[in-house]
# Entry
Amino acid sequence: MILCTVPDEATAEKLAKGLVEERLAACVNAIPGVKSFYQWQGRIESDTEVQLVIKTRSEHFDELAAWISENHPYDVPEIVAIPAERVSDAYLAWATHQTS
# Structure
C-alpha cells in the first residue's frame, strides 16, 4: 500500500484513475477531509487534503512513484509505502491480475 495526500478531490480522481488506467495500482481509495500539519519553507502549515490509499505490488513502487511525481501538483508529494503483512488470497489474486 502506498499513501499519498493530494490537495483536493479533483486531483484525487485524476491521480487515482491514471494509476488504475496505467495498471500501476489495482485500486485507489480517496479519503476526503484529512487535516495535515507540516513545516514547509520555515513555516508551520495546515491544510485539508484527500488521502489516497493505493493498492499495488512492491515491484511497481519505483514506476508508481515516478508517475505520481510527474503528475502531482505538489513540489514534494507524499509517497510512502506500507507493506501489507497479510492479504486474503482472493484479493491478492485480483490485485496481481489488475497490475500485471
